[in-house]
Amino acid sequence: MGISKRERIPMALGAVAAASITAGALMVSSANAAPPGKAAPSFKEVNTAGKEISLADFTGKTVVLEWTNNGCPFVQKHYNSKNMQNTQVAAAKDGVVWLSVISSKPGSQGHVTPEQADKLTADRGAKPMHVLLDPDGSMGRAYGAKTTPHMYIITPDGKVAYNGAIDSIQSNKVDDIPKATNYVAAALSNLKNGKAPDPAASVPYGCDVKY
Amino acid sequence: MSRLAARLAGLLLLMVAPLGLTLPAVAQVTASSPHAEGTILLERSASTPGDTFLGALRLKMAEGWHVYWINPGDSGLPPTAAWTSSPEVTAGAFQFPTPHAIPLATLMNYGYEGELVLPFEVKIAPEAAVGAPLTIGATFDYLICADICIPEAVTLSTRLPIAATLSSDDAASKIIAETLPSIPVALTGQAVVERSGDMFKVGVIDDSLASAVASAKSVRFFPYGAELLHAAPQVVRNGLDGVSVEVKANTMFAKPGENALSGIIGIETADGKMRGWEVQAAPGVVPASVTTTLFSAAAAASAEAAPMLPIDQLLVALGLAFLGGLVLNLMPCVLPVLTIKAASLVHAAHDPKELRAHGLAYLAGVVLCFAVIGAILVGLKAAGDTSAGLGFQLQYSWVTAIFALVMFAVGLNMLGVFEMGGSLMGVGGRLADRGGATGAFFTGLLAAFVGAPCVGPFMATAVGAAMTQPPPIVLGIFIMIGVGLAAPFVILSFTPAFARVLPKPGKWMITFKQALSFPMFLTALWLLWVLSAQAGADGVIWALGGAIALSFGIWLATRVGGSVAGRAVSTGVILAAFAVPVFGTISPPASAAAVVTASTWSPERIAELKAEGRVIFVDFTARWCVTCQVNKGAMHDAAVQKTFADLNVAFLEADWTNKDSVIFEELKRHGAGGVPLYLVYPASGGEPRKFDGLLSAGQIQQAVKEAAGSI
Questions:
Q1: Is A95 on the interface with B (CB under 8 A)?
Q2: Which of A66, B149, B546, B628 is placed for a possible disulfide with A207 were both Cys, Cβ 3.0 to 4.6 Å?
Q3: Beta bridge partners of residue B134, listed in sequence order
Q4: Whether residue B299 has pLDDT greater than 60
């Protein structure tokens, strides 16, 4: 009768809640996986040439990770203004490894073939050492990448030194770039001079990563 | 900063404007971007120097697209405004309504879908010149996202006349006023936050929040900053004093020792409205009175999160339910059924064993009926039908029609038109059958079914308490009402002395039984009258057609019922007889507009009359409630009418014959689970006096005189 059914509904809801909390816990563990000071999660992803690239390949070097999606207006802000390319060039001069990561799932905005990725790099005059293709989002989730752009700096001994936004003004307007502090450039400069990045963490802004 | 840049550009424009380079000339109140339509709204159609009022940006977004709260969550940006208004105009910051949580894969955003009205304060400088209209406008930038995000903007402006007196833009004011309740309010209570490791526990002690959470669909803490993991599950608990939320810290931004948290507690009410309370939580200990129970939308839906009654109050409620059931025996609606019971008792009186079986079967019937009514009410409530109260069964016209036919058939049986041969006559026909226990059982069912709508004075309180309780308690209270209703007959049937008092069975019993058929026909008539209010004259005609078909079927059964074929045909005709009024009355119910007259009750009318300082007498009634009809006699008493006229009493009627959630809410508010309920509002204002049950003309006069202050 009515009663037993009524009792079954809360039970079912309870089971669903328990399942979602478990799922949430898994999700959360990755959402905060790469805070400054902690070891950077290892990864192994293919670049546009089909070669497997892993974090271990760059031991002894400072590594920058840049989550990107060419369709995202926030990414366009930093590429159309050449801000991202300039930061890449400056980093490369200091021997910093720059890896652009695309975690858009197939069919979503920003998902590209290796050829398209290479064309984008050439067209935009971008200077990453590699563009990594992470269509299953495993690397993005391991780092807790939330937005495009979302920037990470990894020290030569494999620790996260910076996690956050490209710069200090959360907007999609090119006009704001000259007024903003470029957190990545500032952090790289601090690291070069033997100082800790300040800030070491900021709230990333942009489009959501298309997991 | 974009806002700064735009502001600078705006300033520049304003500076050059007086030099003869005019601002964009055409005021554009509404404009569209690819995924939204923006409109600038002002509460004023004309303002005055020094005036302060609200304006708003209304965004109508394309389906599936959203914009962001002041804290967008894991990604996104809130809308901004770059003002281009006249220098005499100062516009304040957006007052963001309570947002929705918008999950996106593993991320969480806070924002708005559908339509957003974003109010802002507008101040007109005291130096503004009367007669010179001012421009109020801005370029509104917003990031609008579905699965992809697009920065869009609309440039809007409006010309506002400055006059000596204000005039309001009613349409715009209404739109802005509708969004204001969703803007978070300052907390009147206090908020504390406990940090243990990487968990935050926010405790908010606030009465208005506590009661809002009790009936909420969802509760969430929306942080202003980045201290929390936006996508982490939030564990919400609530208690008598408020609510608490546990959520994981984002240790990148909430450093150990940095324990203050600010944000809003946002809730979605049962009717889907968003409400918010602004929280500035200082480090402290979260009290137990806000963590009593785990909040879940399911719990809120099934019990409306009313705290379970303590055991002593529960016993009182059960006791009152029993008393209420007992009193129900005296209610006019149950009396006709009791005559059936009386008839069967007389039959059984000669055999104490059969008498006891009768009593128990009757008890089982009554209790089963109340339990089923209780279970259905619980089910209806869980399904979101909050307007179902006691007596709901007679609010369905087809149920009323079937009962009228059953009563008619019982009457025919008692009159001796047919004897119960086989089982084909069904429930009604068996009632007066000498078969005993089965008949008694159905009598019990019937007594409870027609008795339930007549809420006895004791029952109103018990049922009022019951409806907010968890399902098992609701059922318990209904069962106790049934036990109370059945008690007198059960006691009689277990008292051998009673049997001796009764006359010996004999020929007189046939006469007695036949005489009792007339109360049955009267009951059928009453049900038809109820039906006439529910399904109109057509419904009554259908029911009468059904009655003729039923008579025909019964007659057939008595003629050809001996053969299998004859039995099949007559059964078919009888079933068809019941189907006729069901199909005839399931047409759409009469529109509610028909009952709106000058004396119709409404909460608004009460407010108006109270403002006039009049004594108000409200009659909460229903056609199917016989007690209500009896009381109508008292109200129509000449002396009462004269008192009403002399004291200028406003006489309102709330007719609950058909389902009406507004009336039901009012009944519940006054602790009544059904009708009758009478409210007498004093002329001096304040809370009304309540009456239920049977009323006398003297009582009414006394009450209104007291309310008028003339005693």
A1: no
A2: B149
A3: B160
A4: no
Q: Which residues on chain A are in Cβ contact (under 8 Å) with B73? A: none
Which of B148, B248, B367, B469 should one mutate to test binding to chain A, selecting the residue with the greatest count of A CBs within 10 A? B148
Q: What is the per-residue pLDDT across B667-680, written as a single tens digit (0 to 9) for each? A: 888 887 788 889 99
Residues B328-376 have pLDDT tens digits of 777 655 666 676 666 666 666 667 777 788 788 888 888 888 888 788 8
Is residue B538 located within the same domain as residue B431? yes
- Cβ neighbours of A10 in B, within 8 Å: 296, 298-299, 302
Q: Do B233 and A24 touch (CB under 8 A)?
A: yes
Domain A35-208 has CATH 3.40.30.10: yes
pLDDT tops 60 at residue B430: no
Rounded to whole angstroms, the Cα distance separating B640 from B633 reads 10
Are B252 and A179 a contacting pair at CB < 8 A? no
Total number of domains in chain B: 4
Residue A177 structure tokens: 């770039």
Helix (H, G, I), strand (E, B) or coil at B275: strand
Q: Which residue has the higher pLDDT, B418 or B90?
A: B90
pLDDT in tens, B300-324: 443 344 456 667 777 877 887 888 7
Q: Dihedral (C-alpha) B81, B84, B87, B91: value to the nearest 10 degrees?
A: -20
Name the closest residue on chain B to residue A1, using Cα atoms: B375
Distance from CA of A162 to the nearest CA of B (A): 10
A73 min Cα distance to partner chain B (Å): 7
Q: Which residue has the tokens 């502001």?
A: B7
Helix (H, G, I), strand (E, B) or coil at B134: strand
Domain final position from B270, B303, B336: B303
Contact across the interface for B375 and A73, Cβ inside 8 Å: no
What are the pLDDT digits (tens) for B590-607? 333 322 233 788 888 888
* Confidence check: pLDDT of B426 > 70: no
Average pLDDT, chain B: 79
Block residue for tokens 């059931």: B325
Residue B541 lies in domain = 311-585
Residues 6+ apart with CB under 8 A from B541: B584
